[in-house]
Amino acid sequence: MTQVLLETDGLTVRFGGHVAVDAVSCAFHASELTAIVGPNGAGKTTYFNLISGQIPVSAGSVSLMGDDITRLSVSERCKRGLGRAFQLTNLFPGLSVLENVRLAIQAHRGSKASLLTLADSHHAVTVEAMSVLERVRLDTLRDQAVSELSHGNQRKLEVAMLIAIDPKVYMFDEPTAGMSVDEAPVVLDLIAELKAERDRTILLVEHKMDVIRTLADRIIVLHNGALVADGDPAEVMASDVVQDAYMGKELADV
Amino acid sequence: MLKTLLSNDTPRSKILTIVVLVIFLGLALAPFLFPGVRSLDTAARIAIFIVLAASYDLLLGYTGVVSFAHTMFFGMGAYGVGLASLHMGRGFHSIIIGSLAGAALAAAFAFLIALFSLRVRAIFFAMITLAVASAVAVLVSQLSWLTGGEDGFTFKIPRELGPANRMGEFLGVKINGKLLNYYLIFTCSLLLFLLMLRVVNSPFGRVLQAIRENDFRAEAIGYRVVWYRTVATCLSAATAALAGSLFALWLRYVGPDTTLSFTIMLDLLLMVVIGGMGTIWGAAVGATLLVLAQTYLQDLMGSAATATEFLPLLSRLLDPDRWLLWLGVLFILSVYFFPTGIVGRLRGSK
């Protein structure tokens, strides 16, 4: 078995009487892409929020490369190698595309505390930011304000910010949501590349079945906050419990 | 060279460049261009308030933190110089020690306030600063054995900087200690202004902007938001205190009305908003405009009222006593037409 990078043990959060994530225990390994699926309201994004630290846990623990990070702040988790992209685009709208990526790189360098040097004079940061932007094909838009970018390009930048952080654990929350048919492949190819080239683990919340089929090594299914299935994509998709939890709910929606 | 001095943050607009140059040359040559006690006093005020407004903009415009305690920090610097000169004897050592002590006290206060309130919502920080600033203002007016109470106190500055120190004439202008004092204040203000410009364009300054734009994401990419906000608050407070020291040095007097009053706080807010939040240049433009308006609007209106004496209503409206009304009108118009401030507008249109 390959190394465990991220593990949740009995992870639980309650909002009042409602249990949003119910004792989820799961380990994520290096070089593995895990798709997290489940109907709307199953607790996927809440599970992400617990792992990355946006909301405090009620019970259970999160560990990153063997260290307990349950009580650490969001920024400290990020420094230790936990990177997250958001479902709703969540960038620095008034700053340029390049500045957004540079800030992500700078966060993990010594220069961040510098008060008296010029930000523009840190060439290594700029060069690295440009190479990240080339990968997501936003290099020609480097000086645009983020608020002026199309939705699809904002999604790409969201992924670029994550690559710039260069974490051990990548967490993508519906990275292609709202993207056009011809834009989505750029992001999906990138995720495939990341999976191939780096010894990292990738968590992917996704609704699109074709995406899951091509990318995922493993699927876990959340339903009403609990982990109801975990395993090989083809097997999990075919199992009854998933059909009930997922498709049953979707039929009910119609 | 010049670009490095300006931290690559040039005015980036022809009109703005001209405006900034006019302000700079006007202040640099003030004693020769506008002779007279009153105009020199106005020039010194402009220089000092540019620094004060720039340090406030570091908080309000760059970090997105609203503070009402900025005049308190300003006052700490002023009282620092005043008390040191009063008790340690006149001399440059008192001024330097007083300034440093004032700046250190301001930074320490800022650190405590930030630590207790920046973790929670921004509005809470604003309320806390308001409360602390009011408390300090009351304290200063009550502790009259130390601070001179409501009256404040005068003190002596080094002889070299006094009007009695005559050194001859140049271009028909008497060179004396007062002039020397003016250039000391001008130079210090210029250095502090360039320092502010450098800080906002440093990696640290970029993080502040990121926090202003989206503190949630700044935290998520690995920045400790509370820490950055705290450092920015301390830095801004210390700079405000240094501006206060310069003001005390110029006036040779400290008192609640000239340094701690809430009116100055509001003026400061106006300077930053009219000039353009989030641009240090905006602070320079806003401070210059407001100080000029405060000093000369009344004169201007006086002469306008005399000129329109035959029109009953208009001359009443233009009475010098109504100058605050017109300042208010100017403020509303400027916010309406330049929501991003004068500098934002000039940079936007190029």
UniProtKB/TrEMBL annotation, chain A:
Keywords: ATP-binding, Nucleotide-binding, Transport. GO terms for cellular component: plasma membrane. Coiled coil: none annotated. Pfam families: ABC_tran (PF00005). It comes from the Bacteria. Residues 6-249 form the ABC transporter domain. SUPFAM superfamilies: P-loop containing nucleoside triphosphate hydrolases. GO terms for molecular function: ATP binding; ATP hydrolysis activity. This is Arginine transport ATP-binding protein ArtM. It comes from Pelagimonas phthalicica. The lineage of its organism: Bacteria, Pseudomonadati, Pseudomonadota, Alphaproteobacteria, Rhodobacterales. The gene is artM.
UniProtKB/TrEMBL annotation, chain B:
The lineage of its organism: Bacteria, Pseudomonadati, Pseudomonadota, Alphaproteobacteria, Rhodobacterales. The chain crosses the membrane at residues 15-34, 46-72, 92-116, 123-145, 180-200, 226-248, 268-293, 324-344. The keyword Repeat does not apply. It is found in: Cell membrane. Its main location: membrane. One of its GO terms (cellular component) is plasma membrane. This is Leucine/isoleucine/valine transporter permease subunit. One of its GO terms (molecular function) is branched-chain amino acid transmembrane transporter activity. InterPro entries: ABC_transp_permease (IPR001851), LivM-like (IPR043428). It is a multi-pass membrane protein. It holds the Pfam family BPD_transp_2. Keywords: Cell membrane, Membrane, Transmembrane, Transmembrane helix.
